[in-house]
Specification:
This protein is an all-alpha fold. The chain has one helix and no strands. The N and C termini lie far apart (67 Å).
């Protein structure tokens, strides 16, 4: 069964990940976000408890 032979596929897998981590990943992470994060509104919402008709 040739699918179980890891020799050619391991080289392809490792070269793909090496390419991704060394070349593509720094290029992708260098993009600036268009929407800068804003501060979260810290207001606490006060809700009324639900009145169950059977209690």
């Amino acid at each position: 069964m040739p699918q179980l032979n890891p020799d050619p596929w391991f080289l392809i897998l490792s070269s793909t990940w090496l390419t991704y981590t060394m070349i593509l990943q720094p290029k992708i992470s260098s993009y600036l976000s268009m929407n800068n994060p804003t501060n979260k509104n810290n207001k606490i919402a006060h809700t009324k408890p639900w009145t169950w008709p059977w209690t």
